Amino acid sequence: MELLQTIAAVRNYVAAARQRGLSIGLVPTMGYLHEGHLSLARAARQQNDVVIMSIFVNPTQFGPNEDFARYPRDLERDRELAAGAGVDAVFAPAVEEMYPAGYATYVQVEGLTEVLCGASRPGHFRGVTTVVSKLFNIVQPDRAYFGQKDYQQALVIKRMVRDLNFPIEIITIPTVREADGLALSSRNKYLTPEQRRSALSLHRALNLGSDLIKAGEREAAVVRRAMEKEITAWPETRIDYVAISDADTLKPLEKIAGRVLLALAVWVGNTRLIDNVVLEVND
Amino acid sequence: MELLQTIAAVRNYVAAARQRGLSIGLVPTMGYLHEGHLSLARAARQQNDVVIMSIFVNPTQFGPNEDFARYPRDLERDRELAAGAGVDAVFAPAVEEMYPAGYATYVQVEGLTEVLCGASRPGHFRGVTTVVSKLFNIVQPDRAYFGQKDYQQALVIKRMVRDLNFPIEIITIPTVREADGLALSSRNKYLTPEQRRSALSLHRALNLGSDLIKAGEREAAVVRRAMEKEITAWPETRIDYVAISDADTLKPLEKIAGRVLLALAVWVGNTRLIDNVVLEVND
Fold it and tell me: What positions does the entry give for (R)-pantoate binding (chains A, B) (predicted)?
């Protein structure tokens, strides 16, 4: 497997693949890989001739008081895992390679980015869409892969791709979970054993909400309150948001109908975790 | 010459050219073509196998009280002129093709866009960089051509291309002028005969400023005042800005040195005209 550390090296690698008529799949990550990332890589492996994974902890998507500095990094381990999942080349640039002195350009999706995680993390999605635009222009893939766990991120990127006419297909892959239901996240590493137990409250609350809706509850406020109670019953939890929203527009729902997103962000100790589920409610 | 009116038609046209290994030059315009645009097209003709010109009066780069609605349009004439300059295909989309319902994504260059025309026309450059990003992703040219008359625009686009890693070479072409020095502009059409005479004040002021600097004047305030006097001596003129700036950063200069931009925007009646010149001052 190739390790590429400069934009020029990626351009050369991609140009050689293109000259041979090969299709290219891109898996953008911040590294510290887990099975969620690897499921993206395996999907890319099946659908493309060449698979490139980017590993870059992107500073522009972290707020000033967030965990950019302490975000877990382990490039050696990531390279082995990526190779095992069929990745052909890892692009792992330095921050200065992506954001040289004088950097000044940002890509912004309006509307969709102002709710849920966007409300709690101002500027976060602007950083995401900016770095993803750069990766798209550097790699020029046929397809790019994103996890459903970051539902809003995937929706924002699809909107950006449609609006800015990137000639790229965006493919989303279901959330990968531990046996007990906890969604995989590089940030799970931050949790103490006790916090790890409390982190289950996210999955439990989503299950509870889904069950209530399947049982016929259509009042979003009722479902949301039940979910909030489930979360706050666990030690060290603090709710950032519990949202019941239209899955396409992310607008909050009062009456539950159509494609519905249950999404939540919860602080467990000093770690902010997110999870979501999408339901089809047709009655 | 081909007339393409949809994004899908451009993608097909470009894919066919790419399959034959042909290079592509893009000339983005708002139409109502004059010799300035045609000089861009001729440069593109010399340097590329295929030349595509876009003709699109882009609503997102006009302010709410600006001349979007009355901006001159004449597609039939433009097609003839483009064909005569060696353009292979004109892309002339409807507004709804470029900005369908729910459109929400914008590209923004900070810093460079906050001075000169950016200060007078808030949001203007955001509209420019957004539509140019779209055109770049639709056409995927090897090279794109912009006029030096819109100096700040070309600088902003170069910054965007570098920052977002568009694999495109930006080529700027010198301003084309009437015999008496007036820079060509589609907006010159708005001028009455008397205003047409006053419009010469821009070129005159730039010449005066250049001459003062060549004669040894190094105080920007002195040169600027002389230029302002020249402009206001003509009927119906109103200065938007007269700037003496670093040609790379657009920061205002006090002492004139290095690569220096003399730039101005002047209202002549209800028409806002711009012009500029770049000098090398090494002493």
Answer: 61, 153
Q: Which fold has domain B186-278?
A: Pantoate--beta-alanine Ligase; Chain: A,domain 2 (3.30.1300)
Write out the two tokens for B96.
């709804």
Confidence of residue A98 (pLDDT cuts 50, 70, 90): very high
Identify the three-state secondary structure at position A21. coil
Q: Which of B11, B110, B167 sits opposite A104 (nearest CB)?
A: B110
Q: Would you state the pLDDT for residue A283?
A: 80
Query: Is B134's CB within 8 Å of A167's CB?
Result: no
Q: Does A125 touch chain B (CB under 8 A)?
A: no
- Chain centroid to CA B75: 19
Per CATH, the homologous superfamily of domain A2-173 is HUPs (3.40.50.620)
Asked whether the predicted pLDDT for residue B107 surpasses 90, the reply is yes
- When scoring A105, A129, A155 by the number of chain B Cβ atoms within 10 A, the one with the most, hence best to mutate, is A105
**Cα–Cα distance for residue pair B104/A156, rounded to 1 Å:** 10
Residue A148 annotated as binding? yes
Active-site hit among B26, B27, B37, B118: B37
Provide the shortest C-alpha distance from residue A200 to chain B (in Å).
Answer: 35
* CA nearest to B51, candidates B13, B84, B81, B24: B24
Is the reported ipTM for this assembly greater than 0.95? yes
